[in-house]
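I have been asked to look over a protein record a colleague put together. The record follows directly below this note.
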Amino acid sequence: MFRSIIILITIFVIIIAVSYNWLYEFYTVLGYNRPNIKPYENGKCRIIGGVEACEDIHIHHRTGYAFMTCGNEIKRTKGYWPPLSTYNSNIQTKDTPYIYDINNDKLIPLVLKNFPLEEDFATHGLGIYEDPENENKLYLFFVNHKRSGSCFEIFEHTLHTNELIHLETIQHKLINTPNDVVPVSRHEFYFTNDHYNNNPTYKHLEHILPLSWANVVFHSSITNETKIVAEMRLPNGITSNLDHSLIYVATTFGYVLVYERNKYNNELELKDKIFTGYATDNLSVDEETGEIYCAIFPKPYMVVAAHGKELGYAPFVPTGILKISNNTERDNEKYSLKPIFEDDGSLFQLTTIAAVDRKRNTLLLGSFRSKGIVRCNSLEPLI
């Protein structure tokens, strides 16, 4: 009898401890107690007009070309775009990817070749792989939220041209709620499913319940293998270091996960788990320093409020960028976390990517539903 009571008390204490940790993290990430964000006024960042709803940006550092998945702000919120739980199948989406030439401050729309006119092209995450045998040839991997089911579209691009030549479409039952993608070869890539469920009601439950139902998936067209390699709660952006030995995954509820990649079987082993305290979206890794630039939502409950209002009448939603570096201070923390950009939403809202280019001392900010992109001529524009 006494032993049973001890076991029950132990179980109760464990449940309380786990619940406390989860509730603390949940409350922290929601940002209710976070001070109000002020307008950005340091003058190091400006809007680049002519595009909108550029959810993801990847910079080809040798050329200074930033490849961007841009769309239409109205269609993001009124058409068919599952990430926002908008399922109006009467509207076809044909997004136009862009290059932003950092050196010449110029936007270049990209033309899709060999891509069926009747097919949807509703972009989300983006990954780039450079051909190791031809430095002028890139392969671009796009998340495409087609009305017939989400998939990946792979294109070939020759640098200094404006064409994307469609090569193939990848579909699979594990491509469920794809968010972002990182290729590790011409025929292999990892991607995040940001939810387990497609149903909007069940997706909202995943935001509340501390369940690791979503996942990271590896796909190989070489071996015809598609498999789950990690499970977690609400993964979002995914990227890698230069040699693809480390895979970084952001989660919507406050973590950046660092995985070591086994190049022989493509399994992932968790190396570090960094609590950012913020709802974290896409990631960009500085190839020279290894620092991680995270797009964050300081007050994500305001993002929810903005979704429910007509465009033009939504409240300003604060936005920010967090930099994760190796900690050089004399304490027990392995990483230092530093906000390097904050804005109350009056300059830019809902930042989903901060692409870093150290060579040109430039940060590029994109958003899934804001007009334009932001160019910062500083890697720490708050200073």
